[in-house]
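Is EPU placement plausible here? Inputs below.
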Amino acid sequence: AATKVRREESLAPKTTMRVGGAARIYVEPATAEDLRATVAAARARGVRWLMLGRGSNLVVPDEGVDGVVISLAAAAWATFEARGDGRVWAGAGLRLKNLCGLAAKAGLTGFEFLEGVPGNLGGALRMNAGAMGGWTFDVVEAVTLMDADGTVRTLPKAEMEVGYRHCAELKNAVALGALLRPAAQVEADAVNRQLDVYRRKRQESQPREPSAGCIFKNPPGTSAGRLIDESGLKGARVGEAEVSAVHANFIVNRGGATAGDVLELVRHVRARVRRATGVELEPEVIL
Ligand code: EPU
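Reply from A.M.:
I modeled the complex. Tokens:
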């Protein structure tokens, strides 16, 4: 398949929050060479460029993005190769849901906690996404990345600075894929049973409406959701954006929300939690 380039591409449908305007230029590179050329062209013109990931951890502004938005949506980036030594090579464009499904089929356990994280592997690496007590980097051996200048490097995890929702090396670089280490080889049924346990847990504790996942990072030692809940904010609304009644660290789009609604509600929540508890919540999503 060829690289896709479009002008004024609407981003809302490409995000899980479903708000925001268009990208001046939107590119789906089909190859690493085209990705390199896209970034180089943006840099040469002094134009902002950014990776969309799966569009699940950001709120696109209503005025859109005045720059180049890049998505590794082409099939070539969604590879999954179970290797003879038990490890797995996965491309950055592979959705976590598909990673889990393919691992289950291959009888590889250890990735199940990622099942419900609405992202692709590249985004999950960039922010060390986590759920159910696990972090993406728990299962990473090495990451292959492209620096902003186009250099491709493979870094072992031990040489990377990773933490809670943080990966220093990917702040200004693009993850191309990673070598992953499953915990063990088991029966496919056992993997599927574990996936079901997590799926049920998530369905009970997290909302189904469009959202960007958790809006704020958990402050050390506590849960942002609990603080927001205890500040009496469940159900608080600005326009069509609402603090979820299911989990207070989710802002959900009730239908016609704008990015402006979401941002105003974020400000309101921060101010109210600050007043009620003294804690300054830090956004986890890109606002
Ligand atoms: N709680 C409340 N009210 C709420 C929400 C939560 O009192 O409205 C309480 C819960 O009862 C529980 C505690 O807060 O005692 C923690 O809640 P939960 O288990 O839902 O975990 P969390 O810390 O709120 C984290 C991650 C989620 C991940 C879940 C499940 C962050 C910011 N959030 O949430 O990740 O899915 O654990 O493992 O680290 C995300 O990062 O986007 C995200 C959704």
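Short version: The domain at 78-202 is CATH 3.30.465.10 (Uridine Diphospho-n-acetylenolpyruvylglucosamine Reductase; domain 3).
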